[in-house]
Amino acid sequence: MTGAETLAQKRPVSVAVSPWRPFLPLVWLALFGVLALLLAVAVGSVAIPPAELWAVITGEGSSLHNTLVWELRAPRALAGFATGGLLAMAGALMQILLRNPLADPYVLGVSGGAAVGALAAMLAGTGAFLLSGSAFAGALLSTFLVFGLAHGTGSWTPARLLLTGVVVASGWGAVITLMLAVGPKDKLPGMLYWLMGDLTYAQTPWPALVLLVLVCLLVIPLGRSLNVLARGPLQAAALGVAVRPLEWTIYILASLLTALAVTTAGSIGFVGLVVPHMLRLVLGNDQRLILPACALGGGALLTLADTLARIVIAPEQLPVGVITALLGVPTFLVLLYRSR
């Protein structure tokens, strides 16, 4: 046997791999999201069988089922999907920026700042546009407070950032309590229920859905830069990434996502913590895959949580924030224990 024949035998055989194969999990997550939406519109005080649901989708269902699906359940399910996707993406962006799996809009006080801004607009009797703008301003202010105080004259550390976020969140909680104490009594029940996270009064899901799609289209081309930034600002700068503009982009996007999620469904915690971490355990840490996966996985999770909130004590309904807290608190404690 000649040397060339031996080399040919030892050479590994190349197998053609589709360039779309790494993104196959997104297809499965999209299917999971569709199933979550179908379950949300089919389950409730009046159950809709699969055959009747298909008839409603094709425009041939009864008037009662058409009203239930298109006027009541579908808008709420889509609003829940959009809110979950917004919160999960905001959490993923913060975790990239801070290189900390404990970063989350709720834990770091960003949701609290957005809630204060939204409540202030509600007390002032402003419209929906000013409500969203006020929530965005509160979220942005809270972001600057947490990141600025945690950075100080040194660098971020997980313990310092977490402590700063907890303190700022507690401060926003005190402000919310003060606003509830001095606010009009007729608005108090609705404000309290909204603060617990509720999709009952979500009027239209389209602004949140449009923003979710736009942010996905914006951050996917930035995936390579975000992958480098996740390793640290010094390494990113050495590899030619414009670190400061990219960090400001993440600041603003995370605040905007959180603000619109809060104005849509109130203060819902732990979605931005649980979903990105679980997806990274399964899919790895490529941001080109993780960020759209967070949009789909967070949407599906919150849709299922809201469905459970509607049926667990039917005919009464639980705030969806209760369900996400019951899921998120144990997960947060496990992450905190492992981060030692």
TrEMBL record:
**Provenance organism:** Halospina denitrificans
- Kindly give the PANTHER family that the UniProt entry links to this protein: ABC TRANSPORTER PERMEASE PROTEIN MJ0876-RELATED, FERRIC ENTEROBACTIN TRANSPORT SYSTEM PERMEASE PROTEIN
Q: What membrane topology term does the record carry?
A: Multi-pass membrane protein
Taxonomic lineage from the root: Bacteria, Pseudomonadati, Pseudomonadota, Gammaproteobacteria, Halospina
Q: Where are the transmembrane segments?
A: 26-48, 77-98, 105-123, 129-149, 161-184, 204-222, 260-282, 289-312, 318-337
- The stretch of residues making up the signal peptide is none
Q: Which GO molecular function annotations are given, in alphabetical order?
A: transmembrane transporter activity
Location in the cell? Cell membrane
Question: Mind telling me which Gene3D superfamilies this protein's record contains?
Answer: ABC transporter involved in vitamin B12 uptake, BtuC (1.10.3470.10)
Name the domain of life: Bacteria
Q: What is this protein called?
A: Iron complex transport system permease protein
Q: Which family does it belong to?
A: Belongs to the binding-protein-dependent transport system permease family. FecCD subfamily.
Stored InterPro entries: ABC_BtuC-like, ABC_transptr_permease_BtuC
Instruction: Provide this UniProt record's keywords sorted from A to Z.
Output: Cell membrane, Membrane, Transmembrane, Transmembrane helix, Transport
Q: Which GO terms describe its cellular component?
A: plasma membrane
CDD domains for this protein: TM_ABC_iron-siderophores_like
One Pfam family recorded for the sequence: FecCD
